[in-house]
Design goal:
This protein is an alpha+beta fold and 104 residues long. Helix content is 16%, strand content 35%. The chain is built from 2 helices and 6 strands; from the N terminus they run E-E-E-E-E-E-H-H. The strands form 2 sheets. It has a 3-stranded antiparallel β-sheet, with no helix packed on it.
Length: 104
């Protein structure tokens, strides 16, 4: 859950969003809204990379991405190493977000 409203505009690819109790399929041109306080997430379900533009309000969540993000050295390759989930969860709390454990 989060104290931020997020609007996702899918630019390329095929994504699946979970917003609260709803599961939504979204392809290029789709817009998905996730209001603050509602657990939400997304994953790429297509066979190619996806891209989206995200509008987040109020301001402040960009600092989370600055703190946990790492510069990309080769944009054509996948993640260079797995993310540090414990660090991600701890930093998320600092910015008012809750990241639940993955489903069993």
């Amino acid at each position: 859950m989060s104290r931020f409203d997020e609007t996702f505009h899918v630019l390329e690819g095929e994504l699946e969003f979970v917003v609260g109790e709803r599961t939504l399929s979204a392809s290029a041109g789709s817009v998905v809204y996730a209001p603050r306080g509602v657990l939400h997430g997304f994953r790429n379900v297509g066979t190619k990379h996806s891209r989206m533009a995200v509008i987040i309000t109020p301001a402040g969540l960009e600092k989370f991405f600055e703190e946990v993000g790492e510069p990309v050295t080769d944009p054509s390759s996948p993640l260079e190493r797995p993310p540090d989930i414990e660090r991600l969860v701890a930093v998320a709390r600092k910015y008012g977000m809750e990241i639940p454990p993955p489903p069993a």
